[in-house]
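User: Structure please.
Assistant: Input sequence and predicted structure:
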Amino acid sequence: MRIGILGAGAMADALGTRWAAAGHELMVAGRTESKARRLAEKWGGRSGSFREVAEFGEVALIAVLYQGMAATLDGIGDALRGKAVIDCNNPVEVEHFTLVTRPGVSMAQHIAQVTGGHVVKAFNLCHADVWRMEPPVFDHRRLVVPHCGDDPSASELATRLITDIGCEPLRVGDLRHAHHLEAMAAVMISLLFGGMDSLAAFNLVAATG
């Protein structure tokens, strides 16, 4: 699968490295071109502009800090219209650990409105270090990755990419539920800033026996 990685930070590095190892073809863009080039070399892929990378991918991952989202979306333009888009971002300020989006409107919905892409919210509840685990397993259980979106085909692609890094996908509804996943992330981010280990994660488990 061709994956466009829009962002060159820790999340892009962690997820892109796992997907490259699974055999996917990657192209990356970042606001710092040198970081994007280094990631491309690491993955055996290519780097380019945000628009070029968006056009390249069958599916795109947007992985940037919320402060840089407007500039990133401006660089993408309409190149994601009708495409599957995975949004792993969290619009959470780190003074009071609250969402910065309008009440009831998620970052994922905003990205969908601006790009015209079929957005799936996923991979937003863990530190990048968790996605570097091969595979992410906690107490002998695979990590469950909640995801939500409106388009069935985009959700199927997200399911495949979740499975490819050794996790268990869990569809939790349509894109309206992205707001709840972002609020869950605000709790996790506050715990991480409070000193919790970066490999900590919420995981869905069921009683056995």
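Helices lie at 10-21, 33-43, 50-56, 69-76, 107-115, 128-131, 152-164, 178-193.
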